[in-house]
Amino acid sequence: MAALENVSTDDLRQVLAEVEGKKPTQRLMAAINYLEDDNLTQKEAAERYGYTGGWLSRWLDRLERLADEPFEPVVYDEPRSGRPSELSDQEHDRFVDVLHESPEEVGIDAPAWSVPLASKYLTEEFNVDHCDRHVRRLLTEAGLSHKTARPEYYKSDERAQDAFQDGFKKRNDLDDEYTILAIDQTRQILSTLIYAWFPEGERPSLPVTGAWDSIKLLGAVSDTDETFFLPCEENFNSDTTIRLLDALQTKFGEKICVVLDNASYFTANKVQEFVEETPIELCYLPRGSPELNPAEECWKKLNQALGNRLFDTLDELRDAALAALNSINPPNLFTYLWP
């Protein structure tokens, strides 16, 4: 809607001078902003106050429908009676439609619905107050189910990956003395369950520990099919990165070209300052591109070697991890960087 036919901004400003409370003020200000600025969209007006365009659209529709009534019950939510009200058929259909969208579409700062959020929406939008059990039933009847979302990791743009590979292939600023290395990091805890094959019809169980103590490893794969792994006592930080780079120079020579991801401990200013004083070249992968890093393949093989096993101490885990890594055939770096 472009404007309210039966309500003027002067009317709204007069009410604004008399209302109290954050929500009524936001409702009125968003409506005034939108109606006074022809270039402002509903979405832009709503976002000024932390809501979405859908929230403002519903508020303007409500304002238009109730324009002939006193403003107070329109701007403020009507007080709830002692007995919870029920949704009308039309309101129920609207509620179901809303549930099949993100809560953000109705001005709720959350990526997914929960019983408390749905209950809050029913109260604020329809003046309906239900117990959690009733709200769960409404969610189920609306076709929703209680489950965990699948992780969706940030994925790099394919064009960025192609550009990186083409650029790396065409580099001519490295002389023959440079060794190209891809580095990465991982953590291993005392027990990790992974997929395996078990007899059909049986429910297998394996011992695990609830402890989250872990060992930390930095690793490198070279263009000569060599590997290098460095255990870390502390959490990954700029100092551990510098220690790894220094160790790589000791093993592979001063001139190394290091391919790495954009973790903060790899991109830190302290790391950049260290590299400036050396012949080291750092080449950062596009964000969200683990498939371009051959070191990731080493971690996959390590997980296979250590999975479904319980280690009593971190020392046992560390020894087993290093032994497994030493027996791994390293992947070919060039098949990742310029296939």
What name does the CATH topology of the largest domain carry?
Nucleotidyltransferase, domain 5
Beta strand %: 5-15%
User: What structural class do the secondary elements suggest?
Assistant: alpha/beta
Low-confidence stretches: 79-84
Q: What overall geometry do the principal axes of the alpha carbons give?
A: elongated
Q: CA-to-CA gap between the ends?
A: 54 Å
CATH class of the largest domain: Alpha Beta
Count of alpha and pi helical runs: 15
Question: Could you explain the architecture of this structure?
Answer:
GO terms for molecular function: nucleic acid binding. By secondary structure, the chain is of the alpha/beta class. The chain folds into two domains: 9-141, no CATH class; 158-198 and 208-337, 2-Layer Sandwich (Nucleotidyltransferase, domain 5), CATH 3.30.420.10. Helix content is 44%, strand content 10%. It contains 15 helices and five strands. It has helices at residues 9-16, 22-36, 42-47, 53-65, 71-75, 89-99, 115-126, 132-141, 158-169, 238-252, 264-267, 269-276, 295-306, 314-326, 334-337, and strands spanning 179-189, 214-222, 227-232, 256-260, 281-284. A five-stranded mixed β-sheet has the order 3-2-1-4-5, sandwiched between helices. The longest helix has 15 residues, at 22-36. Residues 79-84 have low confidence and may be disordered.
